[in-house]
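The freezer alarm interrupted the setup, so I double-checked each line after restarting. Inputs confirmed:
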Amino acid sequence: MKLKQKSLLFIVLALVLSMFLAACSGSTGGNENNNTNNTDNATNNTGNDPEDEEEEVDSNEPVYGGDLILGSTGSPTLFNGYYSSDTASSAIEGFIFDSLIGSDTSFETTLSMAASWDQSDDYMVNTFVLKDGLKFHDGEPLTAEDVVFSLSIPLHEDYDGPRKGYFEKIESIEATDEKTIVITLSDIDPSIHVAFGFPILPKHILGDVPVADLGEHEFNTKNPIGSGPFVFDEWADGQYVRVKAFEDYHEGRPYLDTITYKIVPDADALLTQLATGDVHYYTVPASDYHTVLEWEEAGDLKIESGLALSYTFLGYNLRNDLFKEKEVRQALTHAIDREAIVASIMAGDGEVAHVPESPLSWAYDENVPKFDYDVDKAKQMLEEAGWTPGADGILEKDGVKFSFSLKTNQGNKIREDIAVVVQEQFAQIGIEVKPEIMEWSAFLADVNPPAWNFDAIILGWALSTDPDPSGIFHSKEIEEGLNFVAYSNPEADELMDLNMSTMDRDERADYIKQANALIAEDQPYTFLYYPNAHRAMPVNLEGFEFHARLEYYNIHKWWLKQ
Amino acid sequence: MISYIIRRCLMAIPLLFGITILSFAIIKMAPGGPSSLMLDPNISKGDLAAFEEKYGLNDPVHVQYLKWVGNMVQGDFGNSLIRRGVPVSEMIMNRLPNTLLLMVVSTVLALIISIPFGIISARKQYTLTDYTVTVTSFLGLATPNFWIGLMMIMLFSVQLGWMPTGGVATLNAPFSIWDRIHHLIMPALVLATADMAGLTRYTRSSMLEVLRQDYMRTARAKGLKENKVVYKHGLRNGLIPIITIFGLMLPSFIGGSVVVERIFAWPGIGMLFIDSAFQRDYPVIMGLTVISAVLVVIGNLIADILYAVFDPRIEY
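Predicted 3D structure, all chains:
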């Protein structure tokens, strides 16, 4: 009898435990930049950029040596840019691997392992010539064969990684000699540079592996070998990944001896490690910025800040009858005090957004219809749209109450706070909002096709360095893509198509600006704000340049002042 | 005794299957999947479908379960979906020692701290000492682990600089035993707090029970010193119920280690459990469930055997 009871108790305990695990909460992926939109593969851009020194004239020459510890809440998964899709893996791939081209702080393409890149007049034939003396970490020379091998991976029919999309316009890739690669396109693709920036893998190691097995190959987790500035040293699962300087790097040995990418899953614990010096470099979440600012004032560290290449928005599901009319959506935007949100929730750390594009982009134009905070106007517009207060004060139309749920992901304190503020502000104009904070995976499953199970969401887009808005707002992306709010405007579609059919940047910018103005007029989203990125680092770290997209931009040029 | 152990082991088999079925069902019921994490316009539905097809994620749930069980009984826990190609067994073996170390040390700590306090409480029943111990232990029980952990880090690591903030060892430093112990103290203490309250109370009540027994009175009447009476004649009988409690506490150690490992960046299976649950890395979740269940079953078995060792009245 005693045993029976005990087993029963144990089953209950085991159940409770697994329930706890199935329902437990955290903030995986819930950090500021959790969604990638046309993510540039985070390759180490190691371009021959001009020697632009920081503002302070440093008479000091860089010195070699030192170990830098980078802090991260996310664990990497595998180190192969053709198969990984998380930021931690991308960051480390950026240390180990190198590519033909990269991008600089203003997102202009730079040459990295390529000595030259020639495009034919019709942009269809791209000829790359490699630099001399390129080497992999194992000492083998890197040749045109390796480039052909690497960039052909996503073209193979057995390729089962997530990066096919960037390579669709590539017709053929061939090596004409040791150092020359010719890539021919089937059609114009203004964002093809993303594909050309993918990491180069060693053919002498992976050449005989069937493409179907590449994703599972132990190269990706045990022994990644690239030609980047740092050599893979050790991955202690759940603790850190360490890389050390590559003596034969084509831009010269990095100044730092080692970089340790340290994993601390809990954001609060990571912050304390920054305080004690157990972590040297960390991109501080907006909600902790002011805490770290005090540490900077105390002289413990320094912070380099800039606009992040992203925006946060409130998106409306246009399949829902409540949000069908443009005027109603504009009224909703009028009812949200975005200035106050930035001032209070973000402590002033951000900019109110009106455009579906970052101010950092060459296609940004703030001349779009704007819907500033104006409660009276919001009420008036809703009245004109036929919404009148019911007995309980909630707006009604044809017997339907203006009430909806607002979903956002757990673990992002700022988004959770915004949901509450929006609830209050909409209540003032007679609209009922029910905030729902959801676990990240469950939230994505609801938002993504084919579920589209949401009324409104708060989410952010980490933007690509290429400003093409098609991925999010083109009607062809409704059925299976990221246009989950089902925004459809034929005029905007046409402008987006035009932008992708030319290589002339001024023309493209013009089309994109027009499309963005239409999208802003239609307000499928209430654009909330552009966040800043704050990178905390040791006071004596030199050679750092702020890059809105790449957290560890040109890390081989960083050095520690003695 | 031997036949009892064999019986218990055989009974554990259907139990484990039941647990795996339940866990599998629960995790499959959770919305989303490993592929829904890829929110990227350049990832086409076709690519995702190929991924799901390759790993059999579109098969009916019972088919997936049977496939998994079939491999599992042959000792093959499969590969991680997220870390493509890395065997689940390898991922778990990388982490299990850390969790076991933490569990064993915190158990020992909990016992070392709770039992003396429980005995003191019993011997000084209804005095200020008794009340202090009681209140303190309930406070420890009521305070959440993560809060105690963060407060300890703030005080001992950030303010005083006496203790490391987390991890198993100092980064980029040569191995040293002291360094390892240094890193172990805080997480083990925090993990122990949750169970100390219960252990203290149990020790107290079972000692009170023992102190009233006739044989204790006999011992005192023989003129033995009170200390000798309590520790020589009373303690062994007083601690018997604690063994049972300890067996039942094992699952809470595994559950508690999830939180503690997260706060202290302790790379154990708790942290892996959480990561895998969020990423819907089904093979890893299931592998960890089996390992945890086996640990608990073994723990319970050991507790029952110890019970028989300490209490000659028990026969199996």
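Quick read of the result. The first helix of chain B runs from residue 2 to 29.
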